[in-house]
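Sequence and fold:
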Amino acid sequence: MAVNANELRKGQAILYNNDVCVVLEVTHRTPGNLRAFVQGILRSIKSGRSMDVRFTSYEKIETVALNTTKMDFSYKSGEDYVFSDPDTYEEVTVAAELVGDAKDFLVENGSVTITFIEDKAVTVELPPSVVLKVTKVEGGVRGDSANNVQQSIELETGVTMQAPLFIKEGEKIKVDTRTRKYMERA
């Protein structure tokens, strides 16, 4: 389906120079002495590179359908990660580069949102928070500061972070996946 450039929106997938690209940012501009144009930042699905592109406002652009699916993390296969659809049990293997920092919060049967373009996974998105078990506590010393005493803890996924002194080994805590910080006991 083709749309005018001035109808482009952030998050859409388009066909640009025989490559599927995701629109990261769109700005409509109308300079005083020139015709209106649309400036966009696109990320190539094949190469992962971002580019700054300018379209005339009436230019026709081919859009590509995005498919977003909730999936559960199953297991790690070598360097890749395997996710399964909770309804159909269909498995999808995703490269480690695509999973990125989300790997720090992936636990078996943990839910994620995967976006597909033409049956190829392009993004893996974690929920805003996850519940993880504390496997190791390197205690802070009580009395080190007047308030908000923190200790270093290790979670079941291997990631380390700071948490309050009252958190003990074996407890489950809620972690904000965006800020990578302790939220509360679970």
In short: The mean pLDDT is 85. The longest helix spans residues 96-99. The two ends are 46 Å apart (CA to CA).
